[in-house]
């Protein structure tokens, strides 16, 4: 196994249970990859059609090891995170004689790192893998923390593993390849991490006004501080509860309702980005938090202001509410068929596993609909 790169700059590395999360730039990118995976012919890279076009050329220019025969390219989108994609990757690795000494590099957003992490952590009972997240959501959330998985029957992450990559290489330069709605979608997870776990970070970012006209300034803020702080928050909570039995569930604030809203339109022309659904979920769950956990009214109103200024409204109607509630019943946090949510006692303080009566969820969804 190749030796990891020398830690010449402690500031650039966050470690999570021995998994280094490296920040790098275009100049040092190739060196990082080669130090982690070595130059053998047994390495493979997983991309989707977008990252194959926008990000793979940079990887290849600095790390020539990935010729055509080592690239696995999937279609793009959450709908591809399924059993048949998983089979395709396993078969590809098998046909190309990937062995226990192989490494799979997952170059992409959350779909690719979840799917590739699952494929690698189960192929021949587990081979090495490295994540190179290319989306904001991937850098700040999905690629961090060792969750892998696929959706089953359209329900998110119903099969998967807890498995840490050999390393995560964060190259914020890839943010330039993103469409505006992809950047904005990633911000939802950043607001979530702050709201669930870090009051002072929330105070720093709650006034942000995310407009496309300020794109360059926003990317520079992300590169200089915001991504790093989001990763630190996540790494800290994951280190204390890797298998998601308690405190880690705080990272699901906004997701019980958010996932259900996302599923409602999945596969239709009205499909919404994950982050927009999470933003709507956070609004509803903040409203419920006020009633159930005492989230102060002033803090609720700050959350409402931040989310409604920055994210487009998620469309659903009163008649959809029962369907949304029945989707929420599938949530993995539920116990004995009772819906449990991660709710806020205050901005920056989340309580996981709060039993939440369906009547309250109805109220939360209705209040969202009533807001302009
Ligand atoms: N994205 C939630 C978690 O990693 O636990």
Report on the structure:
There is one protein chain. With 372 residues, the chain is an alpha/beta fold. The chain folds into two domains: 12-177, Rossmann fold, CATH 3.40.50.1970; 184-370, Dehydroquinate synthase-like, alpha domain, CATH 1.20.1090. Helix content is 46%, strand content 15%. It has helices spanning 29-37, 49-54, 56-62, 83-95, 110-122, 136-142, 180-197, 199-205, 215-240, 255-265, 274-293, 297-310, 321-328, 358-370, and strands at residues 13-16, 19-23, 43-48, 71-74, 103-108, 128-133, 150-152, 155-159, 167-170, 340-346, 349-355. The strands form three sheets. A seven-stranded mixed β-sheet has the order 1-2-9-6-5-3-4, sandwiched between helices. The model is unreliable at 7-11 (pLDDT under 50). Bound molecules: glycine. Glycine binds at residues 141, 145, 147, 244, 248, 251. Glycine (GLY) is lined by residues 141, 145, 147, 244, 248, 251.
Topology:
Blueprint: E1 13-16, E2 19-23, H1 29-37, E3 43-48, H2 49-54, H3 56-62, E4 71-74, H4 83-95, E5 103-108, H5 110-122, E6 128-133, H6 136-142, E7 150-152, E8 155-159, E9 167-170, H7 180-197, H8 199-205, H9 215-240, H10 255-265, H11 274-293, H12 297-310, H13 321-328, E10 340-346, E11 349-355, H14 358-370
Parallel strand pairs: 2-9, 3-4, 3-5, 5-6, 6-9
Antiparallel strand pairs: 1-2, 7-8, 10-11
Helix pairs in contact: 4-5, 6-7, 6-9, 7-8, 7-9, 7-11, 10-11, 10-13, 11-12, 11-14
The structure holds glycine (GLY).
